Amino acid sequence: MEAFLSGSVNVIHLLSPMAVWTRFGSHFPAKIVAWNHVGGSALTVARNINSLNDLGGKQVAIPFWYSVHNVVLQEMLRNAGLKIVTKQKGKLADNEVGLIVLPPSDMPPALLSKQISGYLVAEPFNAIAEHLKIGKILRFTGDIWKKHACCVVYMHEKDLQQHPEWSQKVVNGIVEAQLWCRSHRAEVARLISREHKPRLTPHIHAVIAQVVNPDSSRHKFYVSTGAIKHAAWQEHRIDFQPFPFESYTVELIKRMRHTQVEGNPAFLKQLNPTVAARQLVDDRFVRKAIQKSGGMKAFGLTESFTRQEVFQL
Description:
The protein is of the alpha/beta class. The protein folds into two domains: 2-37 and 147-179 and 246-299, Periplasmic binding protein-like II (D-Maltodextrin-Binding Protein, domain 2, 3-Layer(aba) Sandwich); 41-143, D-Maltodextrin-Binding Protein, domain 2. 40% of the residues lie in helices and 18% in strands. The chain contains 14 helices and ten strands. The chain has helices spanning 2-6, 16-25, 68-79, 107-112, 125-131, 157-162, 164-183, 185-192, 205-212, 216-225, 246-256, 266-269, 273-280, 284-292; strands spanning 11-15, 30-39, 41-45, 58-62, 83-85, 96-101, 118-122, 136-140, 149-156, 238-240. The strands form two sheets. Strands 5-6-4-7-3-8 form a six-stranded mixed beta sheet, with helices on both faces. Strands 1-9-2-10 form a four-stranded antiparallel beta sheet.
């Protein structure tokens, strides 16, 4: 984010609520031009935690205050009758859950050492806890907010205005990559694991494959444990779909308004969610890229650039 704000880089992958925060909280002229992945996050807990209520009196980690992880987690906790605490001054009450921010890579070690009792974050850190047998998945976020965006493609507004041809090529490349990933899941798992060149991540193939190309038996297992409650949605553990639906941004801003964060979120109350969504998102380039790649149906969607948000705990 610092490199982006300083102009050192032109395009970044970031948490969707962070885009809202930088655009309207910091008044930085940038736009969401596409989504990166949908779903791909989960609430992972210690093996002795069997329900949300078991988290009472304990700490749970998130990657950042302005994250869809924080938004969804707080909705879950409130629905379970638990109180969120962001500034812990003493021992937590039995009906309180303390939220702390940790880098994702620090979350599994913190869970193992019992510094925290759970974390909600993007993959593959949930799969890492499963692989090491130090935690289990209590609920997938994509099973709560259907096909929600996690991270987005964020670009400087001046580049979109001054270099439209270059901007279009950037978005074309991202859309083409997402489409390829959808139909080459086994190869994606191989390419991005540390055992294979070009070694795009430090994670082992067994963990990556569990996320990108899981065995069908895993889906049945998660249905049996309650980690998946909406099996009819047929959600992938992680999926790729580039179009930034306006309805999602509108709903996100509405939910961010009653999500506790550190700092001053007063700017959110001043926003008209629909107007803000249109100011934040520039979908001109991704529309062209999607049509070039076979339309929305190529991503398993209906040929529509609108949808209704589904959020079911």
